[in-house]
Design brief:
Layout (H helix, E strand, L loop, with lengths): L1 E2 L6 E2 L9 E6 L5 E5 L4 E6 L2 E6 L9 E6 L5 E5 L4 E5 L5 E7 L13 E6 L5 E5 L10 E7 L8 E10 L3
Antiparallel strand pairs: 1-2, 3-4, 4-5, 5-6, 7-8, 8-9, 9-10, 11-12, 12-13, 13-14
Protein backbone atom coordinates (compact mmCIF):
# COMPACT_ATOMS: atom_id res chain seq x y z
CA UNK A 1 0.00 0.00 0.00
CA UNK A 2 1.14 3.53 -0.70
CA UNK A 3 0.22 6.70 1.19
CA UNK A 4 0.70 10.44 0.74
CA UNK A 5 3.27 11.37 3.44
CA UNK A 6 1.64 14.76 4.08
CA UNK A 7 -2.07 13.92 4.15
CA UNK A 8 -2.01 10.21 4.91
CA UNK A 9 -4.36 9.65 1.96
CA UNK A 10 -4.09 6.18 0.39
CA UNK A 11 -2.76 6.30 -3.16
CA UNK A 12 -2.72 3.70 -5.92
CA UNK A 13 -0.74 0.60 -4.93
CA UNK A 14 2.90 0.45 -6.02
CA UNK A 15 2.73 -3.33 -6.54
CA UNK A 16 -0.20 -5.72 -6.75
CA UNK A 17 -0.74 -9.46 -6.67
CA UNK A 18 1.71 -10.10 -3.84
CA UNK A 19 0.87 -12.85 -1.43
CA UNK A 20 2.18 -11.90 1.12
CA UNK A 21 4.99 -9.36 0.58
CA UNK A 22 8.25 -10.18 2.32
CA UNK A 23 10.55 -7.20 2.57
CA UNK A 24 11.27 -4.33 0.22
CA UNK A 25 14.14 -2.06 -0.78
CA UNK A 26 14.74 0.90 -3.03
CA UNK A 27 17.48 0.59 -5.64
CA UNK A 28 19.98 3.44 -6.08
CA UNK A 29 17.94 4.60 -9.12
CA UNK A 30 14.74 4.78 -7.01
CA UNK A 31 13.07 1.60 -8.29
CA UNK A 32 11.11 -0.34 -5.68
CA UNK A 33 11.90 -4.05 -5.18
CA UNK A 34 9.41 -6.17 -3.24
CA UNK A 35 9.93 -9.75 -2.09
CA UNK A 36 6.91 -11.95 -2.72
CA UNK A 37 7.09 -14.35 0.22
CA UNK A 38 4.26 -16.53 -1.06
CA UNK A 39 5.66 -17.25 -4.52
CA UNK A 40 9.41 -16.86 -3.76
CA UNK A 41 9.80 -14.13 -6.34
CA UNK A 42 10.96 -10.52 -6.35
CA UNK A 43 8.99 -7.80 -8.12
CA UNK A 44 10.59 -4.65 -9.53
CA UNK A 45 8.48 -1.50 -9.85
CA UNK A 46 9.97 0.94 -12.37
CA UNK A 47 8.11 4.14 -13.32
CA UNK A 48 4.83 2.61 -12.14
CA UNK A 49 5.30 -0.60 -14.14
CA UNK A 50 5.54 -3.89 -12.23
CA UNK A 51 7.68 -6.75 -13.54
CA UNK A 52 9.42 -9.84 -12.22
CA UNK A 53 13.02 -9.27 -11.15
CA UNK A 54 13.34 -12.93 -10.08
CA UNK A 55 10.98 -15.51 -11.55
CA UNK A 56 9.65 -18.43 -9.48
CA UNK A 57 11.88 -21.50 -9.43
CA UNK A 58 14.80 -19.92 -11.30
CA UNK A 59 17.18 -19.64 -8.34
CA UNK A 60 17.78 -21.36 -4.99
CA UNK A 61 16.32 -18.30 -3.24
CA UNK A 62 13.06 -19.00 -1.43
CA UNK A 63 10.66 -17.02 0.78
CA UNK A 64 12.36 -13.61 0.68
CA UNK A 65 12.01 -11.90 4.04
CA UNK A 66 14.31 -8.89 3.55
CA UNK A 67 16.25 -7.15 0.77
CA UNK A 68 19.32 -4.91 0.84
CA UNK A 69 21.17 -3.14 -1.97
CA UNK A 70 24.96 -3.12 -1.69
CA UNK A 71 27.03 -0.05 -2.64
CA UNK A 72 27.99 -1.71 -5.95
CA UNK A 73 24.31 -2.23 -6.91
CA UNK A 74 24.11 -5.95 -6.10
CA UNK A 75 21.03 -7.07 -4.19
CA UNK A 76 21.11 -9.30 -1.12
CA UNK A 77 17.95 -11.30 -0.45
CA UNK A 78 17.38 -13.12 2.83
CA UNK A 79 15.90 -16.55 2.14
CA UNK A 80 14.02 -17.29 5.35
CA UNK A 81 13.31 -21.00 4.86
CA UNK A 82 16.67 -21.76 3.24
CA UNK A 83 18.87 -20.36 6.07
CA UNK A 84 20.79 -18.21 3.58
CA UNK A 85 21.42 -14.81 2.10
CA UNK A 86 21.57 -14.89 -1.70
CA UNK A 87 23.29 -12.35 -3.94
CA UNK A 88 22.05 -11.04 -7.30
CA UNK A 89 23.46 -8.46 -9.67
CA UNK A 90 21.44 -5.47 -10.89
CA UNK A 91 20.01 -7.47 -13.82
CA UNK A 92 18.63 -10.24 -11.58
CA UNK A 93 21.39 -12.72 -12.40
CA UNK A 94 22.03 -15.06 -9.50
CA UNK A 95 25.63 -14.65 -8.30
CA UNK A 96 25.67 -17.12 -5.39
CA UNK A 97 25.36 -17.41 -1.65
CA UNK A 98 26.49 -14.41 0.39
CA UNK A 99 26.10 -16.27 3.70
CA UNK A 100 24.66 -19.47 5.10
CA UNK A 101 23.18 -19.56 8.59
CA UNK A 102 24.00 -22.81 10.40
CA UNK A 103 20.93 -24.99 10.90
CA UNK A 104 19.86 -26.08 14.35
CA UNK A 105 20.51 -29.80 14.95
CA UNK A 106 17.50 -32.15 15.36
CA UNK A 107 15.21 -32.79 17.16
CA UNK A 108 14.59 -29.04 17.13
CA UNK A 109 13.17 -27.42 14.00
CA UNK A 110 16.37 -26.99 11.95
CA UNK A 111 15.39 -23.70 10.32
CA UNK A 112 16.86 -20.64 11.99
CA UNK A 113 14.57 -18.20 10.18
CA UNK A 114 16.88 -15.34 9.15
CA UNK A 115 14.60 -12.35 8.84
CA UNK A 116 15.92 -8.78 8.52
CA UNK A 117 19.07 -7.32 7.02
CA UNK A 118 20.66 -3.86 7.24
CA UNK A 119 24.00 -2.05 7.30
CA UNK A 120 25.74 -1.11 10.54
CA UNK A 121 27.54 2.22 11.00
CA UNK A 122 30.73 0.76 9.47
CA UNK A 123 29.09 -0.60 6.31
CA UNK A 124 28.99 -4.22 7.46
CA UNK A 125 25.88 -6.33 6.84
CA UNK A 126 23.86 -7.13 9.97
CA UNK A 127 21.34 -9.98 9.99
CA UNK A 128 18.60 -10.70 12.53
CA UNK A 129 17.91 -14.41 13.00
CA UNK A 130 14.65 -15.34 14.70
CA UNK A 131 15.77 -18.82 15.76
CA UNK A 132 13.84 -22.11 15.69
CA UNK A 133 10.10 -22.09 16.30
CA UNK A 134 10.20 -24.75 19.01
CA UNK A 135 9.88 -22.86 22.33
CA UNK A 136 11.50 -22.83 24.81
CA UNK A 137 14.46 -23.56 22.52
CA UNK A 138 13.80 -20.48 20.40
CA UNK A 139 16.93 -18.36 20.76
CA UNK A 140 17.69 -15.74 18.15
CA UNK A 141 20.89 -14.04 17.06
CA UNK A 142 22.18 -10.91 15.41
CA UNK A 143 25.09 -11.70 13.09
CA UNK A 144 27.52 -9.29 11.41
CA UNK A 145 29.23 -9.90 8.05
CA UNK A 146 31.98 -8.05 6.23
CA UNK A 147 31.74 -7.36 2.52
CA UNK A 148 34.69 -8.88 0.69
CA UNK A 149 36.05 -6.99 -2.29
CA UNK A 150 36.00 -9.27 -5.34
CA UNK A 151 34.00 -12.02 -3.61
CA UNK A 152 30.33 -12.96 -3.75
CA UNK A 153 30.38 -14.23 -0.15
CA UNK A 154 30.54 -12.19 3.01
CA UNK A 155 32.66 -13.14 6.00
CA UNK A 156 31.08 -13.64 9.40
CA UNK A 157 32.80 -11.12 11.67
CA UNK A 158 31.00 -11.87 14.90
CA UNK A 159 27.74 -12.56 16.65
CA UNK A 160 26.53 -9.31 18.17
CA UNK A 161 23.74 -10.96 20.14
CA UNK A 162 23.37 -14.66 20.84
CA UNK A 163 20.62 -16.74 22.39
CA UNK A 164 18.21 -13.92 23.12
CA UNK A 165 14.86 -15.29 24.29
CA UNK A 166 11.65 -14.70 22.38
CA UNK A 167 9.36 -11.92 23.53
Amino acid sequence: RKFNPTTGEELASAATGLGPPGGFAFAPNGDLYVGNFGSSTVIRVHEGMQQFFILPGTTPMSTPSSLLFLPNGDLLIVSMFRNAIHRFDSTGTYLGVFATIAPVPPPIDNTNYPSDIAFDQDGNVVLAVLGPTNPPDNRGQILRYALNEGSIAGTLIDTLVDAYPPL
